[in-house]
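INTERNAL AUDIT FORM
Audit reference: QA-55
Scope: verify that the stored structure record matches its stored sequence.
Auditor: D.O.
Record contents follow.
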Amino acid sequence: MLEGLDRFFPDTPAVRSKAAGAPAQDAQEAVDEASSLITRDLQAFLKFWDVDLPEDHPENFYMEREWRKFGNLELASCLQEVVAPPRYHDELRTILDNLRARGRYLIGEVELTSILE
């Protein structure tokens, strides 16, 4: 996709300014935004691996089960438990207390469970 965008719209200016959230003013600006989105929100999170390798193969190190997200993760009102190293528990309690103080309703207490670092 990126190669196609670059081929059909090769004249991307080196510096461009724009108000955040404002609509694109022309096709070049729309392509620049699409390229940025693809690079930042999609390509940065792609992981490739040989799907034919068994899970216990020493070169199959991409099979860890993880998820990634660009930006902040919104906490759901039904949040019940947070699993984190103990050194983050006080900071997490402060965050949760601030959410409650700002009117974000969290159902019940949130349990902080420890994991090893």
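Auditor finding: record pair retrieved intact. The chain has two domains: 1-70, 81-114.
Action required: none
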